[in-house]
């Protein structure tokens, strides 16, 4: 049985998932499969040129797994690496995470059979393909630890990043807003049309997570400073929990 190289294509900020999947594959196949992850020090040795090592791995890999998130699929390098596998005619498997789903993949990735990193049923579809590449039986794999790592990563990578970004914009609008919201009481704001537009860009993230809602409260009011609209910031069920979390960074 010859060793097969699995190439995991990913962006640097998602290397945690790539390395976790590498470890899962190598442990499941008892070292019979070599997995290349460009951000892993064990895949690229000290002194090796990163681009040369990556190019060599793309030329020799038997299977390519592409980690797909809403961020990574927008990066040219991900599509370049997927294209290299496409030209060679090897199996390419988009592995979706952090809000991306196989049905939402952009062209040309949506032409491939994708899987979801936090679903056992999806992961079970990948390992027979890996086994076939080395002519072995499909191992029985416990995905529990890997899925826990993926879910933890997704919470940090998307949930808290997006929440903290939204609260940072509130803080930038008025530094005292965060402290005022800690009272868990609605806050009235008089905003211009332009300011309302900006609020409506970032507030849906907090509303969807049941943290905070933004809404207009009536018609325009003319003042010496211009035209303003009364609006409300309304605390929702998870606001207090969010403020008390160690992941809250404002």
Labels describing this entry:
single chain, about 250 residues, alpha/beta, five-stranded parallel beta sheet, four-stranded antiparallel beta sheet
Summarize the structure in words:
This protein is of the alpha/beta class and 250 residues long. Helix content is 44%, strand content 19%. The strands form two sheets. It has a five-stranded parallel beta sheet with strand order 2-1-3-4-5, with helices on both faces. α1 (15-28) packs antiparallel against α5 (144-173) and α5 (144-173) packs antiparallel against α7. The longest helix has 30 residues, at 144-173. The radius of gyration is 23 Å and the shape is elongated. The chain starts with a strand and ends in a 6-residue tail after the last helix. Mean pLDDT is 91; it is low at 43-47.
Helix-residue proportion: 40-55%
Using the CA coordinates, give the radius of gyration: 23 Å
| DSSP summary: helix tally | 8
Distance between the termini: 54 Å
Q: Strand percentage, roughly?
A: 15-25%
* Structural class computed from helices and strand pairing: alpha/beta
Number of β-strand runs: 9
Multimerization state: single chain
Order of adjacent strands in the largest pleated sheet? 2-1-3-4-5
Extract low-pLDDT stretches.
Answer: 43-47
